[in-house]
Amino acid sequence: MPNIVVLVKQVPDTYSERKLSDSDHTLDRESADAVLDEINERAVEEALLIKEAQGGEVTVLSVGPDRATEAIRKALSMGADKALHVSDEALHGSCVIQTSKVIAAAIGKVDSVDLVIAGNEATDGRSGAVPAILAELLGYPQLTHARKVEIDGTSIKVTRETDEGLTHLEASLPAVVSVGEKINEPRYPSFKGIMAAKKKPVQTLTIADLGIDAGSVGLGSATSKVVEVAPKPPRAAGQRVEDEGDGGSRIAEYLVGQKII
Amino acid sequence: MSEVLVLVEHVDGEIKKVTFELLTAARALGEPSAVVVGTSGTAAKLKESLAQYGAEKVYVAESDDATGYLVTPKVDVLAALVGAKSPVAVLVAATADGKEVAGRLAARTGSGLLVDAVGLEGEGGVTAVQSIFGGAFTVKSQATTGTPVVSVRPGGVEAAEASGAAAEEVVEVPATDAAKATRITGVEPIVGGDRPELTEASIVVSGGRGVGAAEKFDVVEKLADSLGAAVGASRAAVDSGYYPAQFQVGQTGKTVSPQLYVALGISGAIQHRAGMQTSKTIVAVNKDAEAPIFEIADFGVVGDLFAVAPQLTDEVAKRKG
Ligand SMILES: Cc1cc2nc3c(=O)[nH]c(=O)nc-3n(C[C@H](O)[C@H](O)[C@H](O)COP(=O)(O)OP(=O)(O)OC[C@H]3O[C@@H](n4cnc5c(N)ncnc54)[C@H](O)[C@@H]3O)c2cc1C
Ligand SMILES: Nc1ncnc2c1ncn2[C@@H]1O[C@H](COP(=O)(O)O)[C@@H](O)[C@H]1O
């Protein structure tokens, strides 16, 4: 009966315009609609599939501003049991490493964790590194970019899918898994699920609750800093023509004009 | 001059092009030292090409564990070298493996992590140039602590030859702690075709849901082949099973920035644009005049791709003579 922690992140909706704040170059989380990152829906789905087959408990964990509760509720309405939400002003502007340390500390608050499931890469930062860094910090094996996950007692097998192809992985629990885009189709929360989620426990933690010093997180002590930001001017539309039986030839002429062919 | 560690990406005794890009980028920061982690005999095969791209040193870290475990052997080797050699920076490719190596290495060595750089500058410290939100912003960043660990996007930097001494130095692969590591029990590599790599190609021809079926994707392939281009696909095309996942372009697929990008039957959703809108020239064919792809296309044809693409393929062939 694996005890699973699923890591979810609220991100700016990729359908809306994403910006950096003018004052400190951090992600402007107010300007865009915020959603549960799609890859994390797949992480939640995978946790629920394991729970349905083998029992256990699914805890959702998110580090992010107060607003991230919406993302947490979504995960709960899909069927997760409870949630931890680390929210603290001091976290503003934290880098990937600092965030991972906070996540690792919060995982330490959950009793006897067997499995941590994350997305392989967030759509905002695209660092694709948090799951591996967590494995480093927790001393767990990492089985990342999973297309298939099999758990048998205390051992875990994962089929990893990357641009290189498939890699078959094996390790022992506890472990960190990250899921890839092709692993499953996440379920839609049912009406019943949405109602039930309202009553599920969400524990809010500050970094002090985690025993982390405010001076070691946030923009001021981030391991990297942005020194310059320049927006790229948006592309303008060029020429558009109707195909009148000569569309292909007209593209060819255009490409010749541009000296591309 | 101080050294810059470059983790070499290799398969079957061949170096991946991204490594040459990393060696080129490293020269802006210091003297490149290539780090080869692999089974015994690997470095000997790679040395000559590493020398051609300016590697002054080659650290040879060879053992069976090196390929028997996921990610951690590379981190172990690099961490030991960071301790012993105090490099100015460590560069790895921003691939799935590389990003994970970089993250763990930065965490272990207490260093700043700079992800997915498309360029590096060496004036006044190591500065990574990043292109974020699908190219909407260009950002420059620096590490504030430790040895900057930078993952560099394949295709982000143009590789240029320069001769290096490639002096070999054997280093140990630290023993793996099996309880904390992940064993690799099998690999099924993707067999690359004759077409150029998506992230390396100077022309990319992509097909979307408008292609309609896996069998019909050859209309995209034929145009690509006439242009010597790589083939890409939208997520809808991948999800519909028209084309394999590793060819997906976009937010959650590859980021490409070729001289020419041709979009066939692709609506141009923001997540697709995120992966291709920094292309130099964009050509689109779509039967819907309102398709958003036309907002960013330099040349758009409103029409049926099954009429337009084959005609273009013929025209290109004719011009090649
Ligand atoms: C978090 C997230 C991540 C995503 N990541 C990606 C990503 O990495 N890459 C990606 O591509 N998408 C991604 N998407 C999906 C994206 O939103 C779109 O759904 C997708 O790009 C649509 O693909 P399409 O343009 O091929 O399909 P459609 O939007 O269905 O467009 C098909 C187009 O083909 C045209 N057409 C049909 N028949 C013909 C014909 N015979 N001749 C000419 N034109 C024709 C139609 O007019 C239409 O415009 C992501 C979405 C989310 C939420
Ligand atoms: N602030 C966060 N809170 C919870 N999980 C996170 C957070 N940041 C990243 N993750 C997890 O790590 C995955 C990969 O993110 P990244 O490494 O930032 O690309 C995400 O899909 C999440 O599952």
Automatic annotation (TrEMBL), chain A:
Molecular-function GO term, any one: electron transfer activity
Domain of life according to the entry: Bacteria
Electron transport among keywords: yes
Keyword annotations from UniProtKB, A to Z: Electron transport, Transport
GO cellular component: cytosol
PANTHER family the UniProt entry points to: ELECTRON TRANSFER FLAVOPROTEIN BETA-SUBUNIT, ELECTRON TRANSFER FLAVOPROTEIN SUBUNIT BETA
Taxonomic source organism: Actinokineospora bangkokensis
Residue span, Electron transfer flavoprotein alpha/beta-subunit N-terminal domain: 24-214
Xref: InterPro entries: ETF_a/b_N (IPR014730), ETF_b (IPR012255), ETF_beta_N (IPR033948), Rossmann-like_a/b/a_fold (IPR014729)
Protein name: Electron transfer flavoprotein subunit beta
Function as written in the Swiss-Prot or TrEMBL entry: The electron transfer flavoprotein serves as a specific electron acceptor for other dehydrogenases. It transfers the electrons to the main respiratory chain via ETF-ubiquinone oxidoreductase (ETF dehydrogenase).
UniProtKB/TrEMBL annotation, chain B:
Domain Electron transfer flavoprotein alpha/beta-subunit N-terminal: 4-188
SMART domains found in the cross-reference section: ETF
GO molecular function term, any single one: electron transfer activity
Keywords assigned by UniProt, alphabetized: Electron transport, FAD, Flavoprotein, Transport
InterPro entries listed in its UniProt record: DHS-like_NAD/FAD-binding_dom, ETF_a/b_N, ETF_a/FixB, ETF_alpha_N, ETF_asu_C, ETF_asu_C_CS, Rossmann-like_a/b/a_fold
Required cofactor names: FAD
A Pfam family that the UniProt record links to this protein: ETF_alpha
Family listed: Belongs to the ETF alpha-subunit/FixB family.
Function: The electron transfer flavoprotein serves as a specific electron acceptor for other dehydrogenases. It transfers the electrons to the main respiratory chain via ETF-ubiquinone oxidoreductase (ETF dehydrogenase).
Protein name: Electron transfer flavoprotein subunit alpha
Organism field: Actinokineospora bangkokensis
